[in-house]
Each structure stands twice: as structure tokens, then as C-alpha cells.
């Protein structure tokens, strides 16, 4: 397809800035224009003034850095006079290794380019700038959740964790094959939001490989304070689980019931399911499946190895509707990220990393003793032929959480192992403390 607008090297101006609000809490003109442009990119209606003020306060709380790409000499009357043609943001976000430790990632979001300016290199320019700034700011890894599956590999991102949208038919699900323990009670969403909910999430995050901390703006949505449309969500309900004989909440669920039209299922849709024990996860599912006057329980953030399948009276009541990529990781500093994660087995191997953008290129030696890794940079270039393992930086990102196996990547032709046993060793070393589960989009 021909470019809609003529190519011109000085057509654009890239600007980096922090979101700002005035005395009344309203976003300043530059911030508001950036937000409106993001809305255009994602086909969302403009925010009300109240919604825009709330969102701007969240961006500031999350320490976001905005990029805007502006059209120089805009045509009179065009939106280019106020809105950037390209938008991009990054901010710090911890990724949990599941043993209580985490690595700070450069989280990337709100990537949009206006349709009239697409495929003219605006995304590439913003990404190059952001990753260079990420290196300057000391990030070992960048992260994102993607709108499409084929955009980000070219920039060195690999899909490190996948997720499933599932539904469970109620009529064949219960009783579970093994009895559950503890108690489930309904609570108000306000009570959860006031402290218990975020506190339970913090414990989930610490013990769950692949969990990412939440944006400030995620909390009001999971507790029904606002729906995705910015209006109060009156239909969100909540329940918590406590272990037998304990006052401490070890899991919660929020959900809404969506009534089916004639001939359609009525659905219990899980909004947020957060657990700090297997018992809590199981009991909350059992509770949801026991709610009368509906046909299915729907969950969009299921992990690949879901224990509910084994627990159900009839495992065929569980169906996967869709599976796709969840969190993508882009290694910026190989030594720092590999030294930040725990390991499940000792071992030593050399790894050659190719990176078309250069940030992670090199040959490295990873030595793991007593669950901690030490990385030595052996060469600036990737010694592909002389190393135990050779792979692209995107595939190193894919391996990081331990959800994707090096043996699988070798079978896919993406990882070269001098000896197949080395891929098996690396798989054992990278085994996460428990099944990775990401439940947070950003
Ligand atoms: C983390 C997030 O925010 S995910 C959200 C991403 N945004 C969206 O999906 C909103 C709708 N889409 C858009 O706004 C734009 O089309 C974008 C942001 C996806 C792409 O912006 P553009 O400025 O057109 O991309 P740009 O011209 O810089 O292209 C860079 C490269 O990506 C490729 N590319 C661009 N868009 C896509 C796409 N949708 N799918 C696959 N490849 C793509 C280009 O072919 C180009 O490849 P090359 O450099 O290897 O030759």
C-alpha cells in the first residue's frame, strides 16, 4: 500500500515529557492531548474531565514517562495541531520470580500511531529511544503486554508467559474430587478495596513467578469502583477465603453475572482472582461454580497448568476458549537479569546472545551455585559456534520466567544447543518455584 502521506525526514518531532496536572488536578494541555491521542489509537471514546483527571493522577503515581511524536507544520484544521501522531509510555514495574524476589522492569504501554501516519517508522523511532533511555535508567529488562502477536519480536521482545481464556460448565463440575478446606464468605468490594485486596495481591505477587505489580489504575477496576468505561460498575461482587481456624484472608475473587439472551449461557465472569495458597484458589472456584442461576464460570486469566482441571468431577466441563501471549520481556542487561533470578539446579554453561539492537549482544558464562547465578561476560560478540547455547535476545526473554522451556525452543529451531543435554540442564536450572501465573495487564 502506498503511504498516505509523503515521506519527509523532518516531518516529525519526538518529545519526552512527564504527565502533569494543574492545581485542580486536571491534566495540562500536553498531557490531555496525549491521552486523547491514545484513545484514538485504541478506538476508545474521549474521557470525561473527571475520568481524565483520575487517569492523569494514576500516570503520575506510576512515575510514567511519556513520548509523543508530533507532526511539524500540521495541516490547518487537522488534529495534528494538538494531538501527537505517536504515543508511548514507560514506567517501573516489578516482575516477580516467585521466591519473594523480583526484578524491576521498564514497562512499556500506550503504544499508538495515528492511522494516517502508520508504517512510516514512528513506532520504531519511539521504541529505539525508549530502550536507550531504559539502559540509561539502569533497567535490566523491558516488559509489555501486546495488542498483536507479531509487532514486538523485531525489537527483541519474547513472549515469556501465556494465558488462557477458559469456561467451566457448572452442571458437570461439582463436587470436586478432593474436598476443599477453609471458609468462603461474601464481602463488599469496598471492604476489599480498603486494604485487604491489595495486601492479598502483594502476597500472591511475592509467591507467583511471572506476576507483575499493578498499575494504580487497575485497582478501581478489579474492585468495581469503575468499569472499563469509567462509570461506576454496580454489578461487581466479592468473596474471600480464609484457611480453617484462621482470621487471615488468603484469597479473594471479584466477579459479575452476565445474563445470557435467549438461548445463550448466563455467565459468572471472574473479574479478579487472587490467591496465596492452592486451597484458596480451589475453594474460590468451588464457590463460583456453586452460584445458582447461571450456566458457566468464565475466566480470562487462567494459567496453562490449571489445577482446576484435575479437581473437577468431570474434567470435560473445562474448556479452553482461547490461548495467547501475555507478558513479553526484552533483556537489556544479560548479567543483571540472570543474576536477579533464583535457580532450581546448579550448573555452568556458556550462552551466545545475538541482538540486532546491540543492547544484550555477547557471549556469557552462567555459573549457578546454591540457587544463585553469577554471570561473566566473555566477549562483546556472540560466539554462536563456540558456546553451549546460542539464541536471539527475544528467546532469552522468553525463557526468563521459566514458563517456556529451552528444550521447546530448541525443537522450534530458535535455540541452538551444542549438546541436547545442555538444553535439558538449562531447563532444570530455570524451573520456577511454582507454576507461573500472570493476572495483570498493563
Ligand atoms: C505495548 C502496547 O501498547 S501494545 C499496543 C500497540 N498498538 C496498537 O495495536 C494500536 C493500533 N496500531 C498502531 O497504533 C500502529 O499500527 C503500531 C503502533 C502497531 C505500529 O506503528 P507504526 O508507526 O506503523 O510502526 P513502524 O512504521 O515504526 O513499524 C516498525 C516495524 O513494525 C512493523 N509493524 C508495524 N505494525 C505492525 C503490526 N500491527 N503487526 C506486525 N508488524 C508491524 C513494521 O512492518 C515495521 O517492521 P520493520 O521495521 O521490521 O520493517
From TrEMBL:
Family assignment from sequence similarity: Belongs to the acetyltransferase Eis family.
**What is this protein called in UniProt?**
Acetyltransferase
Taxonomic path? Bacteria, Bacillati, Actinomycetota, Actinomycetes, Micrococcales
Q: Where does acetyl-CoA bind?
A: 111-113, 119-124, 147-148
- Which stretches of sequence are listed as region Disordered? 1-28
Q: Where is the N-acetyltransferase domain?
A: 1-191
Cite the active-site annotation: 152 (proton donor), 442 (proton acceptor)
Entry's PANTHER family?
N-ACETYLTRANSFERASE EIS
Keyword list, A-Z: Acyltransferase, Transferase
Q: Where is the composition biased (Basic and acidic residues)?
A: 8-21
Subunit structure, interactors included: Homohexamer; trimer of dimers.
